[in-house]
Design brief:
Strand content: over 45%
Number of strands: 4
CATH topology: Alpha-Beta Plaits
Number of helices: 2
Structural class: alpha+beta
Order of helices and strands: EHEHEE
CATH class: Alpha Beta
Radius of gyration: 15 Å
């Protein structure tokens, strides 16, 4: 029987875009790099969910909750 370990990560952009523009969206190139780095480390994405997170009462920031797994060694 294969055993796995799991990792939950929240990927979000920095605060500056939210502060200056009122909201901040995830950069697809940086998000791809984040996913590829984890993939190189053996992590496989199981699921992800997009969220809009409130920051400092009036500002919004896009984020992704990513659940990953890899086999235990």
């Amino acid at each position: 029987m294969t055993k796995y370990k799991y990792k939950v990560a929240i990927y979000r952009e920095g605060m500056l875009g939210s502060l200056f523009l009122g909201s901040s969206k995830v950069d697809p190139i940086k998000f791809t790099e984040f996913l590829n780095k984890n993939g190189e480390d053996g992590w496989e994405v199981i699921t992800m969910e997009r969220e809009i997170r409130r920051m400092l009462l009036f500002f919004n920031r896009e984020a992704f909750l990513v659940v990953m797994k890899k086999e235990k060694s």
